[in-house]
Design goal:
The chain is mostly helical. The chain contains 18 helices and no strands. The longest helix is centred in the last third of the chain and has 22 residues. Helices cover about 75% and strands about 0% of the residues. Helix 3 packs parallel to helix 5 and helix 9 runs parallel beside helix 11. Among the domains are: about 90 residues; about 120 residues, Serine Threonine Protein Phosphatase 5, Tetratricopeptide repeat (Alpha Horseshoe). The protein is elongated. This is Pentacotripeptide-repeat region of PRORP domain-containing protein. Keywords: Repeat. Pfam families: PPR. GO terms for molecular function: RNA binding.
Length: about 325
């Protein structure tokens, strides 16, 4: 048994080094020669590799690999389900999930995460709700944060923020992903009060949450609030990124006051986004100065951006 484990680990290491389909097929032959073709652990690794080659149709070689295992374990089922959930068609992922349930094989949290993600991407609320019911029927996922986060994301993408909030409220434990998913959803809907309440309750605020609040207020014509949140971000020493800067610059443009223009430009330059180094930030600054009535400064920024714009065009070519 110990020698078997050593052999399995060695073959898995070889699989992880594969970079081509031909190499994967050679390793598959090696797996057969060493009588490991019924080992779900090894075959799962091989199947994940082969399904990552997007030029390989899922119905061909990957299905053959799966079908040759007499009693696939939940990880092997999930590897193929996830491949169809990501690459499609989704109907095949669901068919496999149903077959898995018919054989009384318990799905993993990764199984549900893949299917919830696909349901959200397809905006298929009916399917998402059915999967939600399945998590209750199967049981054991009451405290699974990954499944609940995937569920929240699915409901948000399908436009059912109320259901997403219900899932959030019933979670025994939450991480930053749980919070930011809903904060972003509320901000996009324009419900900045709900977004702010959640944001204030978030113990550890990440860049996604800060950006959602700044851009949310700016996009919903509440520039003073956007500036206030951004000031908090700066005071707490959070590293500023390009997207957040564009959001607060947009808010300053709405305020149309030159005092804000000078303040935010200084922050942009001190954060490494000056001298035309960012097309996005530079364009936002031009818009802000134009709305503040300072066309001369807007033109100066444009002149400074010409090198950056040329580099962008050359990279595009």
């Amino acid at each position: 048994m110990a020698m078997q484990r050593v052999l399995e680990s060695e073959v898995v290491r070889i699989v992880e080094k594969c970079r081509t389909l031909n190499h994967a097929k050679q390793v598959h032959a090696h797996i057969y020669n060493n009588n490991l073709h019924q080992c779900s652990y090894v075959i799962t690794k091989l199947l994940r590799l082969v399904t990552s080659f997007t030029h390989v149709p899922l119905h061909s070689y990957p299905r053959l690999i799966f079908a040759q295992v007499h009693t696939p374990n939940p990880f092997l089922w999930t590897a193929l389900i996830r491949a169809y959930a990501v690459r499609g068609p989704l109907s095949q992922a669901l068919s496999l999930f149903c077959s898995m349930r018919e054989r009384r094989i318990t799905p993993l949290s990764f199984t549900f995460v893949a299917l919830f993600s696909a349901s959200g991407a397809a905006r298929h609320i009916g399917l998402g709700a059915q999967l939600h019911t399945q998590t209750l029927l199967v049981g054991g996922f009451d405290s699974d944060m990954y499944v609940h986060n995937a569920m929240i994301d699915m409901y948000v993408k399908c436009g059912f923020t109320l259901y997403a909030r219900k899932v959030f409220d019933e979670m025994p434990e939450r991480d930053v992903v749980s919070w930011t998913g809903l904060i972003v959803a509320y901000a996009r809907r324009g419900d900045m009060k709900a977004a702010q309440d959640l944001f204030d309750g978030l113990p550890m605020k990440d860049m996604v949450a800060w950006t959602a609040m700044v851009t949310g207020y700016a996009q919903n014509a509440l520039p003073e609030n956007a500036v206030e949140v951004f000031r908090r971000l700066v005071d707490e020493g959070v590293e500023i990124d390009e997207v957040t800067l564009v959001g607060v610059i947009s808010a300053c443009a709405q305020l149309g006051a030159s005092i804000y223009a000078k303040w935010i430009r200084n922050i942009a330059e001190n954060s490494g986004f000056g001298d035309g180094s960012s097309v996005l930030v530079g364009s936002a600054l031009i818009d802000m100065y134009s709305k503040c009535g300072n066309v001369k400064e807007a033109y100066n920024i444009f002149k400074g951006m010409r090198g950056c714009l040329l580099r962008a065009v050359m990279l595009a070519w």
